[in-house]
Amino acid sequence: MDDSPRTILVTGGAGFIGTNFVEYLLRQTDVRVVVVDALTYAGQRHNLAAYEGSGRYVFVHGHIENAQLLYHLCRTCEVDTLVHLAAHTHVDRSILQAQPFVQTNVQGTVTLLEVARQIRLRRFVQMSTDEVYGECLRGECAEDTPLLPSSPYAASKAAADCFVHAYRRTYGVPAFIVRSCNVYGPYQFPEKLLPMSILCALHDEPIPLYGDGSQRRQWLYVDDLCRALWLLCCIGEPGQVYHVSSGVELTNRELVAQILQLLGKPETLMRSVPDRPGHDRRYALRWEQLRCFGWEPSVQLEEGLRRTVAWYRDHRSWWEPLWYGEYAQYRRQWYEQVLQSGVRQEG
Ligand code: DAU
To answer: What domains are there in the chain, each with its CATH number?
Structure first.
């Protein structure tokens, strides 16, 4: 029996991964897409404006904690697959203020799971992160590595993942979890290292590197994540955890150096600043399972960075209001309240 999706509800569809995923669905598949997005600072409805009125895409402004709205949408739009991307995602903001992360990432996920109990879904896809395992100094984390989150953000995602597991076991919600490494590409809010570095460099401003800049992350181009998500929407099995990564690991300093080179800017733009409290030095995921399904990353880092830099260079009108608006305010607060006050975490 063909149980591939016909109508997908994407929460957080106006955010970074959401926008790219919805575009992928509308261009590469014939599914119908319903987006629910609260349009917080990180979500922009106009990202997908070109598809409004197309007949295959519906945008609804709403919060994932609004169970009635979600239930109504799932019923009236005959949603069979739910991809849960809505989340607060920035580690530094969670250090400034953890509560919104508990509210959206934990409470919001539980609300969605409650809705999922009441309808017939084929799949509930929980988007998660490698950060739930905490620092991984050697080797790679497997799907059953114990969760040991370091930041309030990671803790909120780990808690949400635990609820997903519990709702699958207790109520049979057909849910599984996708954990990804660092993702980059167009439409990423400027608070993240990669777009922030591009935009600082374009302005010839110093690029703040936390601590010694030798923290390591794996980097995946967003199109490759979208392909993996779609594949899992079609064949993912309830109760599983799936890892998505490129295996391409770099220090932050190496990554920023590549961006500077692409932009023809000097490495002297990199500036060491006090470290992020509780900063994990390394994450690494084992992702053989997806390879067995025939998925592998197709965009090499150099190409992905080239495309991303070009996108930000060509989309000033997208990032300018963010860079000089919400982001500027937040940056000031982060530096004054956390980095300059020397907040430190033991051990
Ligand atoms: O690993 C997956 C995770 O990747 C996602 O779950 C998160 O939602 C996403 O925000 C990202 O978390 P990171 O903390 O790794 O991303 P971020 O871009 O904030 O930072 C990447 C690295 O760069 C990290 O080691 C911290 C460092 N960094 C970051 C900023 C914003 C700096 O050195 N300076 C900075 O100004």
So the answer is: 7-184+220-244 (3.40.50.720)
Which tokens hold the place of 254?
């190496």
Kindly report whether the global pTM for this prediction surpasses the value 0.90.
yes
DSSP string, 245-303: ----EEEHHHHHHHHHHHHT--GGGEEEEPPPTT--SB--B--HHHHHTT----S-HHH
List the one residue out of 171, 174, 165 whose CA is nearest residue 128: 165
Taking Cα atoms as reference points, which of 250, 253, 259, 260 lies closest to residue 209? 253
- 3-state SS assignment for residue 78: coil
Q: Using one digit for the tens of pLDDT, what is the confidence trace for 234-251?
A: 999 999 999 999 999 999
pLDDT digits (tens, 9 = 90+) for 283-323: 999 999 999 999 999 999 999 999 999 999 999 999 999 99
For residue 243 and ligand 1, the question of a CB distance below 6 A is answered with no
- Triad 9, 13, 17: Cα angle to 5°: 120
User: What is d(CA 322, CA 315) in angstroms, rounded to the nearest whole number?
Assistant: 12
Cβ-based neighbour number of residue 110 at 10 Å = 19
- Rounded CA separation 173/167 (Å): 6
Distance in Å, CA 51 to ligand 1 centroid? 31
* Cα(16) to centroid(ligand 1), Å: 14
Alpha helices in 54-151 (DSSP H): 67-76, 91-96, 99-101, 108-118
Q: Over range 321-347, report the average pLDDT.
A: 79
What amino acid positions are annotated as catalytic residues? Answer: 130-131, 153
Q: For the chain, report the end-to-end CA distance as a whole number of angstroms.
A: 53
